[in-house]
């Protein structure tokens, strides 16, 4: 079990990592730190550069058995952190405001436990994923032929708004699928006194925006749930003498299930292309921040439920699925997976807020939960 010294050292390490955040896809120093810690703790194998900066460390048992993966994320956010925190980010404009620093420490704590008592059978893999925040990391890791095979995969995400000692867990949908659609409309400019001589996107935008918003349907608990959010709009130049000839629209599309996303994308594109044709505009698209839905496998959820109950965590399915996305869903193509939302305190600032900080009191319960799962499956 974790000692008081363990908790003090893990807490200090968490705060050090918090002070040195790195953005999605460029987590080289953070990844090197995690790989070094895994080697120091006696991992049997440490793979680096998986899918970019990803790290995977193995603790093997003597007998054959299942391959069990536990995931944490390496990346931070491009947000200016509030003043006043003693361990505030030293890189202005980048901060761990989602708790990935704490998630990493959960795996470091698990590695400590496995170093003291190796698995009896099978393999426990500790996976440090890059680029979670933009949805690119899991796909890149899964596309890397060096990524090992897993039978099970588990993850924790801290969740402000839920009391400490409580958690949200249920089989089925946990996080929605989402994708960012960036639309560029191109026509021709004219003098502002002669708008009839332009091919301007003004009226096209006026038609596109309400039509896109009308694609939303249902509540998040409905498998057919869809949500469309306009996140950014830019048209023409900031000048009074020019009729605009170009525009850009950023839209986030969201669905509870992956199957619904293809139809939603097609409908959104059709709205844009139809309006562009009417107003003699060219339209092109690109897609970013693509997240698969996270769906908890029934068997993996039962294993995680037993571990949570055994470690004193009070479980509820209320609030699931979440509208927000999480880049854990794609690992379900490789393993039976489950993710739990571990309460970070009802009064803690929300995720991605400038004054959010991962509660250090979650370190010990996270390690205990992961270790309980590891011991059940690998002894």
UniProtKB/TrEMBL annotation:
- Can you provide one Gene Ontology molecular function annotated for this UniProt record? metal ion binding
The UniProt keywords, alphabetically, are:
Hydrolase, Manganese, Metal-binding
Query: Which residues hold Mn(2+)?
Result: 98, 100, 133, 157, 352
- Cofactor field: Mn(2+)
Which Pfam families does UniProt cross-reference here? M20_dimer, Peptidase_M20
Quote the InterPro entries the UniProt record gives.
Amidohydrolase, Bact_exopeptidase_dim_dom, Peptidase_M20, Peptidase_M20_dimer
Q: Locate the Peptidase M20 dimerisation domain: which residues?
A: 178-277
- What is the cofactor note? The Mn(2+) ion enhances activity.
Name the PANTHER family on file: CLAN MH, FAMILY M20, PEPTIDASE T-LIKE METALLOPEPTIDASE, PEPTIDASE M20 FAMILY MEMBER
**NCBIfam families from the UniProt entry:** amidohydrolases
- Its recorded name reads Amidohydrolase
UniProt organism field:
Paracoccus aurantiacus
């Amino acid at each position: 079990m974790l000692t008081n010294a363990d908790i003090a050292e893990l807490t200090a390490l968490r705060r050090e990592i918090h002070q040195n955040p790195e953005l999605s896809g460029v987590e080289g120093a953070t990844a090197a730190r995690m790989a070094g810690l895994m080697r120091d703790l006696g991992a049997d194998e440490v793979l680096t550069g998986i899918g970019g900066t990803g790290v995977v460390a193995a603790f093997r048992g003597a007998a054959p058995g299942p391959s069990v993966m536990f995931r944490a994320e390496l990346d931070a956010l491009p947000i200016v952190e509030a003043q006043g925190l003693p361990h505030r980010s030293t890189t202005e404009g980048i901060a761990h405001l989602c708790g990935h620093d704490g998630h990493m420490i959960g795996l470091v704590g698990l590695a400590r436990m496995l170093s003291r008592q190796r698995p009896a059978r099978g393999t426990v893999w500790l996976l440090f994923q890059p680029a979670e925040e933009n949805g690119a990391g899991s796909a890149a890791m899964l596309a890397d032929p060096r990524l090992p095979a897993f039978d099970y995969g588990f993850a924790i995400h801290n969740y402000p708004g839920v009391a400490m000692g409580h958690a949200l867990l249920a089989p089925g949908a946990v996080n929605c699928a989402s994708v960012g659609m960036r639309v560029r409309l191109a026509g021709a400019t004219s003098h502002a006194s002669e708008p009839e001589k332009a091919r301007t996107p003004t009226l096209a935008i006026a038609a596109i925006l309400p039509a896109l918003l009308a694609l939303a349907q249902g509540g998040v608990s409905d498998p057919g749930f869809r949500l469309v959010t306009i996140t950014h709009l830019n048209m023409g130049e900031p000048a009074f003498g020019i009729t605009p000839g170009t525009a850009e629209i950023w839209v986030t599309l969201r669905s509870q299930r992956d199957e619904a996303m293809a139809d939603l994308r097609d409908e959104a594109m059709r709205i844009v292309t139809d309006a562009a044709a009417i107003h003699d505009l060219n339209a092109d698209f690109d897609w970013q921040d693509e997240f698969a839905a996270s769906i908890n496998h029934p068997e993996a959820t039962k294993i995680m439920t037993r571990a949570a109950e055994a470690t004193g965590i009070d479980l509820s399915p209320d609030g699931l699925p979440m509208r927000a996305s999480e880049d854990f869903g794609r690992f379900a193509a490789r393993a039976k997976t489950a993710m739990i939302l571990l309460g970070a305190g009802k009064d803690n600032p929300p995720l991605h807020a400038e004054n959010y900080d991962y509660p250090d009191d979650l370190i010990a319960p996270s390690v205990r939960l992961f270790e309980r799962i590891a011991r059940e499956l690998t002894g």
